[in-house]
Amino acid sequence: MEEEVVTPLRCFGEHHKSELFTDDNVKTVTSVEQKKVECSVQEVLNMFQENHKIPQPTLLREQHYVYLKRGLRYLSDAYECLDASRPWLCYWILHSLELLDKPVPASISSDVCQFLARCQCPTGGFAGGPGQQAHLAPTYAAVNALCIIGTEEAYSVIDRQKLLEFLYSVKQPDGSFVMHVGGEVDVRSAYCAAAVASLTNIITPTLFEGTPGWIVSCQNWEGGLGGVPGLEAHGGYTFCGTAAMVILGKEDMLDLKSLLRWVVSRQMRFEGGFQGRCNKLVDGCYSFWQAGLLPLLHRALYKEGDPMLSQSSWMFEQQALQEYILLCCQNPAGGLVDKPGKSRDFYHTCYCLSGLSIAQHFGGHDFHLELIIGNDDNRLEPTHPVYNICPEKVTQAFEHFRKLPVPAQREGAGNTSNPS
Amino acid sequence: MIIIDVYQTPHTRKTLNCKPLKSHHFRDRKEWADIEPVPQDDGPSPVVKIAYSEKFTDVYNYFRAVLKNDEKSERAFSLTAEAIELNAANYTVWHYRRVLLQALHKDLREEMKYITAIIEDQPKNYQVWHHRRMVVEWLNDPSEELDFIADILSQDAKNYHAWQHRQWVIQAYNLWDGELEYVEQLLEEDVRNNSAWNQRHFVISHTTGYSEPAVLDREVQYTIEQVRKAPHNESAWNYLKGILQDRGISAYTGLLEQVQELQKANSSPYLMAFLVDIYEDMLESGGTSQEDTLNKVIELCELLAREKDTIRREYWRYVACSLQNKFGTSRGATIVNKLLFN
Questions:
Q1: What HEC string does A38-77 produce?
Q2: Do residues A399 and A343 lie in contact, with contact meaning Cβ atoms separated by under 8 Å?
Q3: Are B139 and B108 in contact (CB under 8 A)?
Q4: Nearest-CA distance from B81 to chain A in Å?
Q5: Using the beta-carbon criterion (under 8 Å), do A133 and B92 form an inter-chain contact?
Q6: ipTM field
Q7: CB contact under 8 A, A78 and B90
Q8: SS3 breakdown of chain B: % helix, strand, coil, rounded to 5?
Q9: pLDDT tens figures, A206-253
Q10: Quick one: A71 exposed, middle or buried, by C-beta within 10 A (0-12, 13-18, 19+)?
């Protein structure tokens, strides 16, 4: 009889308890909250060990599929608060499905295309819903969703000329972008703009003037990036800034060594997942925003000629992250969550699965190594660490849009660059 | 079901459900009878279709109508408040409300009261803070801000939006006085509050700067004191490195010895990482006993990788290999190889 070789899980190792938080007998809100989370994670791990003779975490593919499939059509009124983020819902769900290698019927894909077309604004860019104002976040989500669909119909939804005009309309003199006309500035906008502009091939010589310098000014004393200069380093913003710099080819302007030290320090020694900021709590979504930085940094350091980069793994504990996601972030009824005790939602489903994919796949141009914790069925499709859609979809979009000329730059037209 | 907005943590909204005696829907109000509501154009085969409540549909049908007609009236203004209550993340509604505030010359003091209440209820929303910033700018009056933000921070001392707003108002209106004292108060309440440590860096770098020896010494001593009290507080160690790294962390006199002394009774992975940083800086600066320093730092990296900070094993091995590669001799390499790969 063949014996299946089961990788011993890190979280059941004999030394795992020594990773629990040390509060030095100084109790503060931070330590109290951290210990509560560790306690609930420990309970989950105990339960798992009790119910499974041989601990083999399993990805609940079918349950997640049912949850996602339904959400793509219908959402309860609990989603009223995301009524200005409906392209996001399309992206989170479509990306989760592609990671799970689940097909989307052509009719639904076509319906998504038509819906997103209704979210596109006459002045360019996409809004959170039909009739709303254009905003960089749903623009990013819509373009990503359309690239995941990847049909001619999908690509042709995007009005590239108008999109370029929209990007100019939110560009600021200091190199930053506001999220929408009359809206706020932060580093997310640079990422959203760089991602959509590069995918659809509308980058002009002046579009990102000053942007790399502005992004660099968001890197702080901690090594990570804040939302705007001066703010605390934060995983979401650090990802956006770094990925934008990679797209613009200027990643070497960042202090990569400090950034690397900051992000690796965000992996929680006990839980295995990542926190968003120093001394805050673990959250499944940072499995992507934080862990996703390691492939970006690996590539940036490789570009600089770093001779000491590993040829087999990213510079974070891939196994520990997979264990956290599989054991602590899955809702048995489908969908994934922030941490045990939290409710499922499509945002966490998308980013927990994206993080799981990052942790499973190590690769560069010539090589690809897989580390699948648990059953082989847990394997997800790889994701592109810059755009967070599958790499083939990125390649396909590039190929399609590079056949088209960059639209004529009409910088003056519709340029209402000063927010009210 | 708890829903989140992108980048924000989940929150539940608790609304009181009082059934009105008769329908208050806009479609039944006489004063709105002249307007044709505009239903949402989701197309024939909707996707991500939200099962809006009747109230939600009603309010937004009228909002769409008002937007389409570009109506600038008092009733349109009231309508924005209803729309906001149903979905405070609808940035299109907020933008229109601002257009109306200006067009109707509304009382901005009243608007401050309104936005104060909304933020207290939903402090983790982008739009509400941006709106408040706009009103403060129009009034050119930041006088309520620091107290208001302090109140929000008293409920959640790490609210990112609150800190962002605080930094904006301090910088725009030169309100630096007293901020360091505020930071110290927060650190007394929770020495692990990383947002407070960041604010400390923000205030000092924008006022005295860290170049003055008196300032730097004070900060180093303050931080070492915190580290002594709670050796496993990562924020304090990060701050110590953060303020010294530009000048060269090993350049600070007596620091290495102080840290080595702390190592005896108050060790932690963060202390060890800090030692790595000092040794690395010593190597970068050139100087005597390079080989000895290199051996020390590699041994430290190996201890971290193997035992004290295993979650960062890959990283510490990378650091050790990089240092060996950069500063090592071929003789030392054999020793290192034995250490790292056995």
A1: HHHHHHHHHHHHHHCCCCCCCCCHHHHHHHHHHHHHEECH
A2: no
A3: yes
A4: 15
A5: yes
A6: 0.95
A7: no
A8: 70, 0, 30
A9: 999 999 999 999 999 999 999 999 999 999 999 999 999 999 999 999
A10: buried
